Amino acid sequence: MCQTLSVRDDLQDLPVLLLSAARALVDGIDTGVRARGFTDLRPAHGFAFVRLSGTGATVGELAEHLEITKQAASQMADELVNKGYVERRPHPSDARARLLVLTAKGVACTRAADAAAEETLRPWAEALPAGQLAALRAALLRLATPGRIRPTW
Amino acid sequence: MCQTLSVRDDLQDLPVLLLSAARALVDGIDTGVRARGFTDLRPAHGFAFVRLSGTGATVGELAEHLEITKQAASQMADELVNKGYVERRPHPSDARARLLVLTAKGVACTRAADAAAEETLRPWAEALPAGQLAALRAALLRLATPGRIRPTW
DNA sequence: CAGATTTAGTCAAGTAGGTTGACTAGATAG
DNA sequence: CTATCTAGTCAACCTACTTGACTAAATCTG
């Protein structure tokens, strides 16, 4: 019962802590990406890049990933095309659809984001006792809803 | 060096994991709050409630906490007043300012949010090995920027 | 203590990023 | 082959924010 109380106490401020940590991470990545010269992007675009990197995606798939309408996703795609991060290609197997693919600049930007993320997290991870990082990953993995990254609030 | 590689690997997907966990938590709280009858609020309002609970706050203080302009904070305050969660009182020591305070309904709502948060996190916390929860808290505490909760992306 | 400056809050207008609804061109099912 | 469904876009609108202008109260200064 004492154990139960302690769990309850630890639970108390965990929401604030978790949100604050997420916020700190996003701020860190955003700062690092800007410092690397990509000043015309905001964190929201990063969530799109996650889906587009690799084989690319259609507007509909991007919309689903971001949990917004196809119209909004199409608008964001326009913006990323205009800024040179994304290219619209004909879809190989469906003439209605078009494949959104990262340009070289887009790929460079994702590399910058990865570097910024590591830069943000490494000192923090290294300050943790041995093995804690893996444990933390495992714990977060349990709580996380796979695929749902983008906050909607 | 093998150690370094392992840290690097664990770091790799931590951003996604952390954001996904934060998202799952907010979704859980939102669902729980709605289930308890508060259907006219969105997660964004919760960040305001955090600051208003206790002694209350002025519009300016709320704006600072949410990192938005005073005008936007004032607008949100209007909305919360109209919906019966908040009351505008004369400020005890400054006739220009007005104190925003939670009504009984507002307090009930924060209790509902606390219950929803615990409901969301408890089964997850209980599945963790003994002591992991405290370690997680400590780790998040290091990463977190105090006070900055609300995501801006 | 009188006048100048700062601060708390609001009003009004503009903007960014989403929404719903209507539509076209191409894919797919009967 | 026709009918229906699906990918995407255009247009109008909505909402939560922004910037700018202002009033009233507090505070600073000589």
Q: What's the gist of this structure?
A:
Chain A is mainly alpha-helical. Helix content of chain A is 65%, strand content 8%. In chain A, strands 1-3-2 form a 3-stranded antiparallel sheet.
Essential attributes:
homodimer, 153 residues, mainly alpha, Arc Repressor Mutant, subunit A, 3 strands, 8% strand, DNA-binding, HTH_MarR-typ (chains A, B), DNA-binding transcription factor activity (chains A, B), MarR/SlyA-like (chains A, B)
Please give a structural write-up.
The structure is a homodimer of 153-residue chains. Chain A has helices at 2-12, 14-35, 43-52, 59-66, 70-82, 104-126, 132-143; strands at residues 57-58, 86-90, 98-102. Helix content of chain A is 65%, strand content 8%. The longest helix of chain A is centred in the C-terminal third of the chain and has 23 residues, at 104-126. Chain A has a domain at 41-143: Arc Repressor Mutant, subunit A. The first copy, chain A, is mainly alpha-helical. At the A-B interface, helix 1, helix 2, helix 3, helix 6 and helix 7 of A face helix 1, helix 2, helix 3, helix 6 and helix 7 of B. Chain A binds a DNA duplex (30 and 30 nucleotides) through residues 44, 58-60, 68-72, 74-76, 91, 94-98. Chains A, B: Residues 11-145 form the HTH marR-type domain. Chains A, B: It comes from Actinoplanes aureus. Chains A, B: This is MarR family transcriptional regulator.
The helix/strand series of chain A, from N terminus to C terminus, equals HHHEHHEEHH
Indicate the multimeric state.
homodimer
Overall mean pLDDT of chain A stands at: 93
The CATH class of the domain at 41-143 in chain A turns out to be: Mainly Alpha
CATH superfamily of the domain at 41-143 in chain A: Winged helix-like DNA-binding domain superfamily/Winged helix DNA-binding domain
Share of residues in helices of chain A: 55-70%
Strand order of the largest sheet of chain A: 1-3-2
| CATH-level-2 architecture of the domain at 41-143 in chain A | Orthogonal Bundle
What is the CATH topology descriptor of the domain at 41-143 in chain A? Arc Repressor Mutant, subunit A
Structural category of chain A is: mainly alpha
In total, the number of strands of chain A is: 3
How much strand content do the residues of chain A show? 5-15%
Q: Termini distance of chain A? A: 36 Å
Largest sheet of chain A at a glance?
Answer: 3 strands, antiparallel
Largest interface: A-B, 57 and 58 residues
Number of helical regions of chain A = 7
Q: What general outline of chain A do the C-alpha atoms trace?
A: globular
> How big is the Rg of chain A?
19 Å
Protein name (chains A, B): MarR family transcriptional regulator
Domain HTH marR-type (chains A, B): 11-145
GO molecular function (chains A, B): DNA-binding transcription factor activity
Pfam family, one (chains A, B): MarR_2
